[in-house]
């Protein structure tokens, strides 16, 4: 509602407009019907002007009636940021009370996949490998992201977060609908923006398992794996690019979560069984059996 002062001002403006229109009508009428017939407009012109005068009078009357009946319509300026604020305020898709997510990070060849398989077997986790999801999307017929994903993987670069986060969200939703509530997200997040977006849009993580492994050990494992894996990125050139990318972009993520006391470091320069003992102890300590 407008204040009485503004309402009075609006009413005065309407009345002033009506008076102005009335005066204009009178002036034009006087000119039309001047005693000097030779200087006045023709009959057809007089008809057009009379029609215009009638429209002005009717418009003024309608505006007055509308104001008296409904009052003035307030102009409300739209806040361009309100929609984005509303979107961000919607929060994550899942509650951490309902869904437990463990991020699994470490250099390529650190043994993340092997240990995730052990947790799936013994503790009913769902293993979501960001790399596997991207490769599946890359090979999916009709995928609009296929070529872009293929190029990024070949160059050892990180696929844009919008694609990876969307694939993870879909995979978690599908498994959650089947009653699954524990997830190992392997090889993700690889950059700070991925970490923040995932926790804002999907669910905050419980903690991060960081597999710390010497680079020479990882290189040896990956070269050996490349003989049978068929993966385009299991070659020495791509492997070295992946090492560099991990150090430059993923280690800041590990450091970020470590500052929140949400990282458990697993030493991987041991046997598979010894590494798994560390992993089991971390899971039990953080989220129970």
Give a quick rundown of the structure.
The protein has 289 residues and is an alpha/beta fold.
Terminal Cα span: 60 Å
Helix and strand content put the structural class at alpha/beta
In total, the number of strands is: 5
CATH class of the largest domain: Alpha Beta
Order of helices and strands: HHHEHEHHHEHEHHEH
Which strand order do you get reading across the main beta sheet? 2-3-1-4-5
Number of helices: 11
Q: What is the name of the CATH architecture of the largest domain?
A: 3-Layer(aba) Sandwich
Radius of gyration using CA atoms only: 36 Å
| Biggest pleated-sheet summary | 5 strands, parallel
CATH topology of the largest domain: Rossmann fold
- Beta content comes to 5-15%
What does this structure look like?
With 289 residues, the protein is an alpha/beta fold. The chain folds into 2 domains: 4-70; 96-287, 3-Layer(aba) Sandwich (Rossmann fold), CATH 3.40.50.300. Helices cover 61% and strands 9% of the residues. It has 11 helices and 5 strands, in the order αααβαβαααβαβααβα. It has helices spanning 4-32, 43-70, 82-88, 112-123, 130-139, 146-154, 161-176, 192-201, 215-229, 236-258, 272-287, and strands spanning 100-106, 126-129, 182-186, 207-212, 263-267. It has a 5-stranded parallel sheet with strand order 2-3-1-4-5, sandwiched between helices. α5 (130-139) crosses α6 (146-154) and α5 packs across α7 (161-176). The protein is globular and about 45 Å long.
Please describe the topology of this protein.
Layout: H1 4-32, H2 43-70, H3 82-88, E1 100-106, H4 112-123, E2 126-129, H5 130-139, H6 146-154, H7 161-176, E3 182-186, H8 192-201, E4 207-212, H9 215-229, H10 236-258, E5 263-267, H11 272-287
Parallel strand pairs: 1-3, 1-4, 2-3, 4-5
Helix pairs in contact: 1-2, 4-11, 5-6, 5-7, 7-8, 9-10
């Amino acid at each position: 509602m407008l204040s009485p002062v503004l309402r009075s001002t609006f009413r005065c403006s309407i009345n002033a407009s009506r008076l102005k229109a009335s005066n204009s009508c009178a002036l034009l009428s006087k000119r039309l019907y001047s005693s000097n017939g030779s200087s006045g407009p023709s009959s057809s012109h007089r008809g057009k002007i009379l029609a215009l005068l009638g429209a002005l009078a009717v418009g003024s009357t309608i505006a007055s009636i509308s104001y008296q009946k409904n009052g003035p319509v307030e102009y409300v300026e739209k806040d361009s940021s309100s929609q984005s604020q509303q979107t961000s305020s919607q929060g994550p898709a899942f509650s951490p009370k309902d869904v437990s997510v463990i991020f699994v990070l470490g250099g390529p060849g650190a043994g993340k996949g092997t240990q995730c398989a052990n947790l799936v077997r013994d503790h009913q986790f769902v293993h979501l490998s960001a790399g596997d999801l991207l490769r599946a999307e890359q090979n999916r017929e009709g995928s609009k992201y296929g070529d872009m994903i293929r190029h990024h993987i070949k160059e050892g670069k990180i696929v844009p977060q919008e694609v990876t986060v969307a694939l993870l969200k879909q995979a978690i939703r599908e498994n959650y609908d089947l009653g699954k509530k524990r997830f190992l997200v392997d090889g993700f997040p690889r950059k700070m923006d991925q970490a923040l977006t995932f926790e804002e849009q999907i669910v905050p993580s419980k903690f991060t398992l960081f597999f710390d492994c010497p680079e020479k050990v990882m290189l040896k494992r990956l070269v050996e794996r490349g003989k049978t894996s068929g993966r385009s990125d299991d070659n020495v050139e791509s492997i070295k690019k992946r090492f560099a990318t991990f150090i430059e972009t993923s280690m800041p993520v590990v450091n970020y979560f470590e500052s929140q006391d949400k990282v458990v470091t697993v030493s991987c320069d041991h046997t598979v069984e010894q590494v798994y003992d560390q992993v089991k102890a971390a899971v039990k300590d953080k989220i129970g059996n």
